């Protein structure tokens, strides 16, 4: 995925100020930055939930240049999982109906496969989102996103509303799926330890701009921008002790 000069305005205020970045196929770009810096707006612009200017390309497809119909089809190639699955899943739908929203038509067999893919008991498919735990709901949201067979998955603070122990399980699931399916991913989080676990590259947003972008460990070890330095300095654990294991088990102290 390639984003070039992306700009988002709300009235007279420009909240995303012409940012550009590439995420190579199968790579994970972590996006961090203070509250209000424009991370979610960037994500929403990419999936087409917010009008924007600039170019968004998925492989050869230029989402800004094609017709409305082609754009809708193109947008299916980018799916998003939100922070709060309580509001992103329709409470009147069953789990199966929620997942099937991502399918061209309802297909019970495919729904069952998708539930298994995210390690959810297919016996839950007639439950309503409100009857599930937060972690189970996020799995449903992930299954719905994967139902569309996207090339790009955008995860915006997907574990922020979960308990620490459940966060680790959902992150491990996401990382496993990202690798198995070769998904290209934009992973937004406040938590530097979590981003370090998930991402190959790290971009830092500040005031609607990307002020730093590079391989995660390089940015953490040698931040060049003053804002990135202050961001890292505010997290005493970074650089002092390893927060996360390199293997598949995410250390629970990651919060
Ligand atoms: N629909 C909207 N109308 C007007 N302003 C908006 C709208 N959505 C977002 N903004 C403003 O755009 C700016 C960026 O918001 P955004 O939600 O992208 O930040 P963020 O980096 O995701 O923050 P957080 O870390 O808190 O999630 C903020 O100043 C916000 O108030
Ligand atoms: Mg946000």
Please provide a written account of the structure:
The protein is α/β, with parallel strands linked by helices. It folds into 2 domains: 2-77 and 150-254, 3-Layer(aba) Sandwich (Rossmann fold); 84-149, no CATH class. Helix content is 35%, strand content 24%. It has a 6-stranded mixed beta sheet, with helices on both faces. A 4-stranded antiparallel beta sheet has the order 2-1-4-5, with helices on one face. A hairpin with a 2-residue loop joins β9 and β10. It is globular, with a radius of gyration of 18 Å. Residues 239-255 have low confidence and may be disordered. Bound molecules: adenosine-5'-triphosphate and magnesium ion (MG). Adenosine-5'-triphosphate is lined by residues 10, 15, 33, 35-41. Pfam families: ABC_tran, oligo_HPY.
Question: Summary?
Answer:
Pfam families: ABC_tran, oligo_HPY. It is built from ten helices and ten strands.
Read across the widest sheet, the strand sequence of neighbours is: 6-7-8-3-9-10
Question: Structural class per helix/strand content?
Answer: alpha/beta
Instruction: Kindly provide the radius of gyration, computed on alpha-carbon positions and rounded to a whole number of angstroms.
Output: 18 Å
CATH class label of the largest domain: Alpha Beta
Q: What overall geometry do the principal axes of the alpha carbons give?
A: globular
What is the string of SSEs from the N terminus onward? EEEHEEHEHHHHEHEHEEHH
Biggest pleated sheet: 6 strands, mixed
Helix content: 25-40%
Ligand names: adenosine-5'-triphosphate, magnesium ion
Overall mean pLDDT score?
88
CATH architecture of the largest domain: 3-Layer(aba) Sandwich
Distance between the termini: 29 Å
Q: Determine the number of helices (DSSP H or I, runs of at least 4 residues).
A: 10
CATH homologous superfamily assignment of the largest domain = P-loop containing nucleotide triphosphate hydrolases
Q: How many domains is the backbone divided into?
A: 2
Uncertain ranges: 239-255
Number of strands: 10
């Amino acid at each position: 995925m390639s984003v070039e000069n992306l700009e988002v305005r709300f009235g007279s205020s420009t909240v995303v100020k012409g940012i550009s970045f590439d995420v190579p196929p199968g790579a994970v770009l972590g996006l961090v930055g203070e509250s209000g810096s424009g991370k979610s707006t960037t994500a929403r612009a990419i999936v087409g939930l917010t009008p924007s200017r600039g170019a968004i390309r998925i492989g050869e497809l230029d989402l800004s240049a094609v017709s409305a119909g082609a754009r809708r089809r193109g947008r299916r190639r980018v799916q998003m999982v939100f922070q709060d699955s309580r509001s992103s899943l329709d409470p009147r739908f069953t789990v199966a109906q929620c997942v099937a929203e991502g399918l061209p038509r309802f297909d019970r067999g495919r729904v069952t496969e998708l539930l298994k893919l995210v390690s959810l008991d297919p016996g839950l498919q007639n439950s309503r989102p409100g009857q599930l735990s937060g972690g189970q709901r996020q799995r449903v949201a992930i299954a719905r996103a994967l139902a569309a067979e996207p090339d790009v998955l955008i995860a915006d603070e997907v574990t922020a509303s979960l308990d620490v122990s459940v966060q680790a399980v959902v992150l491990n699931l996401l990382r496993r799926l990202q690798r198995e399916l070769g998904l290209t991913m934009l992973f937004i989080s406040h938590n530097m330890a979590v981003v370090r676990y998930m991402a190959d590259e790290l971009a830092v947003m500040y005031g609607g701009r990307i002020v730093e972008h590079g391989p995660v460990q390089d940015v953490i070890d040698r931040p060049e921008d003053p804002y990135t330095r202050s961001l890292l300095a505010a997290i005493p654990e970074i650089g002092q002790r390893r927060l996360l294991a390199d293997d598949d088990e995410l250390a629970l102290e990651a919060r």
